Amino acid sequence: MKSLLPLLLILSIGACRFAEELLHMSPPEVVAWTPGSGSADPENLNTVKIVFSAPMNRNLTEKAFSLTVDGAPVEGVFSWKTGENLSFTPRQGFIAHRLYELYLDSEAEDSWGNSLDSEWRGRFRTGGDDQPPRIVTVSPEDYSTITQPRQHIEYLFSEAVNRQSFREALSVRPALLCVQQWGDDSRSVVLCPLEDYEAGKEYRFTLGTELTDLAGHGLEESCIRVYPVADPGAPRLEELNCLSDGSILSTELLNGGLEKDTVLQGRMNRSLSRGEQSVLLSFSPDIPYETRWSQEGDEFTLIFNDPPQWESFLTMKAGDKSFLLCFDGPGSRPPEPLSLHFCADADHPEADEPRPLFLNGTLGACDSEHAFLDIRIALAEAAVLNISSLLDSLNISSSVLTVKGLGCTEYDMGMTPVPALIPGPGECLYRIRLNTEITGLPGTVVIALEGSLADSRNNVMGERYALTVCQP
User: Fold this and answer.
1) What is the average pLDDT across 269-297?
2) Which of 204, 252, 307, 423 has minimal CB crowding within 10 Å?
3) Regarding beta strands 120-126 and 38-40, do their DSSP bridges make them parallel or antiparallel, or are they unpaired?
4) Residue 216 — pLDDT band, cuts 50, 70, 90?
5) How far, in Å, are 33, 85, 88, 462 from residue 123 at the CA level?
6) Residue 23's pLDDT is what?
7) What is the mean pLDDT of residues 354-365?
8) What 3-state class would DSSP assign to 222?
9) Torsion of Cα atoms, 254 then 257 then 261 then 262, to 10°
């Protein structure tokens, strides 16, 4: 009999544990929470509390919990009075006129591993729930004159308002397309016009009683603001200058030395509407251009889409002012052939110095593998000529002479024979080595440089250069 007592004791303990587990198989529930649904005074509220029907797994329950204010998460500290009583204290306290929401995911478990049947939510508002919203300020003040083409209008409210109700409550006459920029707290909104006010008209902004706060209380009376739009008078160009060096252009003198890629900047006496901007400038002769206006509409940058030709003149009109422009800047000069010199046979013991070539003059070629042609070219400031561009553009044609190119050399002080003309500042000289062979009776030879010849600054010669000489 004594030997059965331990076995009976073990069985009775196991039965008790099994019975206890049977008693705790039901899921936990939220049986109470504070401050509860409705409104709470933020000055007297420090924490939110949840009471459960059973002791909870604290780690899992804290992970499943969240508190938001107007949809944004709230940081805070957890504390437990008992296993059934959870408290959460926001680090920044509670803010008046806000919507708070408590949330528990169904992953929250009690001490026996039972999860909530479903997610749980509770919500409440803080303070002012029985007060209608008020308009604190509207800027600018009533009957202020609109002086900017797209001047902003700003509203400030006593509390957060329903943004959709604002859209429904607002009317503007005459109609004006605006975008709304709201403050993060929904207490302020700026109306930003997407089109210009019409000069000389009055605009009436009406905010009706359809406006509500977050609790649904409406504005007690409509708010009307009237803004007359000033007639600004004709726009006037105050100053026009070159962006590269800041030099100011004159209306009385020729504005020379401009580069083909010159960018001009203009400053007006006031902001211009889009319509005024589009008709401000005109050019003679016509030339495609682009203007980029400042956000305020009182300054612009002028860019020529097609670079003006070298030494071309352009008349620019801006309102009542006129400017004469000349594009002859040293950096825009196109390559220009200055002289051609020919040597029939540099290897001959009695070879003459290179002979200058003139229109209808004599070439004097012979059968030779040591002929050369010196080409002297004027260039833009700080520009260089690409040898491949020169060779591509060079063409020597004749029915009485066969010419083959053997290479090209740029001038240096050691060049022999010495060129007849040494290149000066802003000039270059290239020696084209040639193989020449007489193939027929006397005739002509045409030496040409095609208009595609370009330098390193993208200055293009433009017009074809051709020199016709006689071959005896």
Assistant:
1) 93
2) 252
3) parallel
4) confident
5) 10, 18, 14, 78
6) 61
7) 94
8) coil
9) -50
